[in-house]
Structures are given as structure tokens and as C-alpha cells.
User: What shape does this take?
Amino acid sequence: MLVLNILIAGILTGAVYGLMALGLSVIFGVIRVVNFAHGEMMVAGMYVAIVLNQRAGIDPLAALPFIAALLFAFGYALQRGLINRFIARPEYNQFLLLLAVSILLTSSTLMVFGPDARNVQLDYAFDSFEFHGLLLDKVRVLAALGAAIGVAGLWAFFSLTRTGKAIRACADNQLGAQIVGLDVKRLYAATFGIGAACVGAAGSLLLLLVDVQPYIGADFTLLGFIIVILGGLGSMPGALLGGVLVGVSEALAGFFIDPSLKSMFSFALLILVLLVRPQGLLGRTA
Amino acid sequence: MTRIAARLGVTPRALVAGALLLAILLALPWFASSYIVSVMVLVLFAAYLGQAWNIMMGFAGLLSIGHALYVGLGAYTGAALFVHFSLPPWIGMVAGVPIAMLAGCIIGGLSFRFGVTGVYFALLTIAFAEFTRILFDHFGWIGGSSGLFLPVTNLAQNDLWHLRGSPAMFYYLMLALVAAALALTRFLLRRRIGFYWQAIREDPDAAEALGINTFRYKLAAVALSAGMTAIAGVIEAFYYNNLYPSTAFAIGRSVELMSAPIVGGLGTLFGPIFGAFVLTVLGESMTGLTAALHIDGIKQWFYGAVLLLIVALQPGGLWPWVAAWLGLADRKDAR
Assistant: This one.
């Protein structure tokens, strides 16, 4: 029963990881730019949620739409103002640009908030549901629920709205999209904004589960990479599957072996998948 | 003099400028303060590591974001042999360099065999470095996460055999290494292997079609780069006297290491050295600014801002532009 509890906790955390990685996957799938500032963007969003919680007593779940909107604006402006100029440049150049952005984000949060770890105060932090002997933390269930709603919203956006369909057209064939008159640069900006909004929402949810400090951004960027590579870069269901796999493997490794060894298993898994199936578990082509 | 310059394949002005620079660098510890010398040691470390990394990315087009792995392997081998068996760093190098080369060959061999390229190759190098970092965190024989410390002895006299001594000794040692690396890369770039690397960088498929054994030459680039990097790792361990997996193998270390050649100019011979100078001096002046303003993070902020500006405005690196401006090179010979 204990193992089952841990398994379920891992799946629930993994759902939030999945939402975070989904942002990375959408950005790569459409713009073909690897967002090396992904975790740092999430940390910036988490700090906004912390400020709202500490100054105005707003629950991170209530602040989520605002934070997602804020990060959408940030992502849109970043793509419009900067990254669009780098689309045709070599990969290492884009990598360096986003690296500079990540350094700026981390150092800005460090300058404003200092290096100490922070968390939110919730009156339901230690509540849990009991279900046939299974014990579920309330925060984890809420976070996973939030992630599920986010993913469903994203899926609806990409399959039902005109803008969503236009973005998918850009991803399939950029030149073709341009020929039929789509404003590719604007759609790219919207895509980066959506990716950023995903990670902002994931950040507000994750704040229920973990403490935040400026330097953890890089860890989450790497975690995002592990997840999307596992699932397949650019694949939406793949990002979710990868998130759940990593959540479960972290929870199990943390319980059975040693919590500090848990990310070693994730990296070993990443190496294995990269070598044997570089397009990821659910990816189409390499 | 024109004849010497022609034989070396550089312009007369570049020859004079190079000789002048070398003279200044050789005389530096005699007139500069010990602070300047210690900053210059950092510049030379960054320059040498940048040159080694540049062989993979700049010459053969293989983006490695996990180069801290090779620095760390060299550093830990040298330090562990010294701490446990009192073996001098030069013996440590004899062991550490092949270990790093082997690690490079394993990573490269697996990647090239399985056709892992581009972004995926870069992510794979990160994954191996991070994997090793966590492994070393749990490896008690070399200190684990609480670190490995080299006994600090009296620094009054320089002992080159045991690498115990003043920053000036490390300064000359690193200066010699940077000069050797410059000579080696310049030599290789004008040989068959150098042209093969550049062909692979520009178009791997075309290179393969022309009959170049791309697997072998890519592997050679990784092995050479890893081995050279490990040499600096051993010296670095004896310079700082402490080692932690969380800093030695960190992705931040890899990024720091590759920023000098990118800022200076990828694929150029002098770019990594110039980039190391610009970035280190910039970083040090920012440290002063941080101390004056009492704000955490302002150093990294300026570093990020400058990196952003350089990447946005001078994507080919600063050195080709500076070299042209100084008239050191004619046409493509900015390298």
C-alpha cells in the first residue's frame, strides 16, 4: 500500500512536470528553438506568485491565470523582439541567446529576492484525502488537477481555434504557411507566449509542492529536457507521458534508494533513450 | 621580417603585434601586482579550455555542453592520486588524460554510432556530465559531496614537480600551455585532419560522400579536445586545492568554459584567447562593482547582458572584427 501511495504521488507530481515540459515541447515543435531559459522562466513566475501570496494573501491557485498571462506577455515580447531575429541563425547562436536570457532572469530574481529559499503558507498544506486506504495529499491532487485542466485547455486551443490550427500549420510547413498568407512571425511569438504561459502555470502549481530559490531554474530546465526527450521533442502526449515517467521514477528512487540519487536515474534514462530512440518514446521522426 | 611573416603565414603587422604581446605577457609578473597576475591566471585557464573546446565545436562542428566532465575527470584523477598515493600531478596527468579521452571516446563513439547529432548530441553531453556529477557526489573515496581537499604546503618556494607555488608559477605554466595549444591547433588546422574537420563541420553528409571517414575524424576531435581539457583540470585542482562535484561537473562550468571561444570567435585560432581576456576582465570588474553596491547577482546580470549584446550584434565573435580593425589579417586569414 505504501508503494502504491508513492506511485500515485509520483504520478500526480509528474502531471505538473508534464505541463512544464509541454511548454518546452510546444516551443521546440513549432519554432525549432530549444528554450534553455525554460526553468528560469518558471522560477520567475513562482516568485511573482510568492509576492502575491505574501503581500496580498492570494492563493497560488487563484493567482495562476494572472501568472500565466504575465508569462505569455513575456514570452510573446521575447520572441517578437529578440528570438525572431535568430530563427535563421545556427543552433549554437540561439542556444547562447537563450542562455543569456536565463542568466539575466536568474540574476534578476537573485537581485530582487535574495538567495534564500521561500515557500507559500497554505492552511491546507497538510490536508489529505483518504480513499480506500490510499492517502492522497490535497496539494498534490490540486496541483495535478490544475495541470490536467491546463493540458486540456491547450489541446482544445490547438485543435479547435483558428490561431491554434495556424500554429500547427507553421509547425508542419513554415514555407507553406507563409505562402498561404499566415503571419509566421506573429504566430511564433504567440507560440512562445503559450509555451511560457504553460511553464508559468506549472510554476504556480509546483509552488504548492516545493520551495523556490533563484538557482533552481537550471535544474528545472534540465528536468524539462529529460521529460521532452523521453516523450519525444515536439510531441504533446509525449511530454505528459515523460512527465509522469520522471515523476514516478523520482518518487520510487527517492523511496527505495536515496533521494539525492533520484536525478541520476533520470539522466541514465535520458542517455539510454537518446542512444536507442532519439526521437523519444512517442516522437514521430528523429 | 616580411620573410619570416610569410613563412609563418601571417601578415608582418600580426607578427610584430604577436611578438609584442608575448613580450608583455612574459614580463607581466615583474611589473604587475599579484592581483593582476592572479586574474591573468584565470584568463589563461579560460583561454586554454576555450581552445580545447573550440577543437570540437569550432573545427569539427560538434557542440559539447558537457565539457566540465573532462575538466572534472582530470582534476579528480590528479587530486585523488596525490591525496591517496602522494603521486605528483604530472603522473596524475598521465592517468587523467587517457581517462578523459576514454570518456570522450565512449560518449562520441556511442553518439556517432547511433546517429545522435545536433541538439540531441549537445543534450547527451549534458546528460553524461550531470550523471557523473551525481555519481561523484556519492563516491566516498574521493570525498563525495563534501569535497576533496589537497594539503596546502608552504608557498614560499615554487615546486614545479609537485605544482606547489605562487600564482606566478601557475601563470607561466598556463602561458606555456596556451602557446602550445595555439601552435598545435594552428598546425592541425593546416593539415589534412584540419581540412577534414572543417568539411565535416560545414556538411557531414557531403564529407562522408567524399570518402572522409567522418566517424574516425569526429572521434579524433572529441578525444583530442577531452585530453587537452583534462590537462587543465589537473592543474586547476592543484591551483585551487579543493574540488566539489557540484562545481567541478556543473553545467554552469561547461557554459562558462564555452563562452570564451564563442565570444571571441568560433573556429578562429586566437578567438578563444581574446574572448577569455574580455570575459574574465569583465567578470572581475563586475566583482568589484558587486562589492561596492552590495547587491547579490549584479555581476551575473551584467555578464548576461554583455553576452546578449555580443550574441545579438556580433554573432561571429569579437576577434575577427577586432583583427580586421587592427589590420592584423588580410581577408580570410583573421583566423
